[in-house]
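To the wet lab folks,

You asked to see what we're planning to order before we commit. Fair enough. Below is the target structure as tokens, and below that is the sequence we designed to fit it. If anything looks off to you, flag it before the synthesis order goes out.
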């Protein structure tokens, strides 16, 4: 959409630089010139960092298996909305979203089985 036209004027933008996305700042980004495989691997953040703003719950055993296979699970400490689900190694499994049945389901499911 053209914001200038909507305001009844004309404008030209020659560049746009995104300086942050949520808690991730441009200054913390890896320079492209330093992007060799070892440096990139060392600089990667865990997936859970992207959802640090969500309440977190740990899934294990049968509950974890049921969740990654697409089942609806009951989470005792459930928040009103979405929750980050992690496994016993604190690896992000997916986002638990409230289901109409009163339980929760992984959507998305990063283990890819459900």
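Sequence we intend to order:
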């Amino acid at each position: 959409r053209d914001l200038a036209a909507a305001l009844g004027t004309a404008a030209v933008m020659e560049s746009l630089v995104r300086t942050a996305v949520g808690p991730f700042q441009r200054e913390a980004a890896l320079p492209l010139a330093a992007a060799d495989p070892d440096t990139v691997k060392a600089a990667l953040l865990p997936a859970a960092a992207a959802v640090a703003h969500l309440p977190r719950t740990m899934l294990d055993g049968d509950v974890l298996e049921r969740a990654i296979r697409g089942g609806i699970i009951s989470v005792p400490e459930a928040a009103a909305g979405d929750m980050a689900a992690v496994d016993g190694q604190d690896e992000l499994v997916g986002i638990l979203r409230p289901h109409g049945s009163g339980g929760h389901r992984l959507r998305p499911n990063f283990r890819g089985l459900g």
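Structural context that might help your review: The first strand starts at residue 20 and ends at 21. The chain has a mean pLDDT of 89.

Thanks,
Computational group
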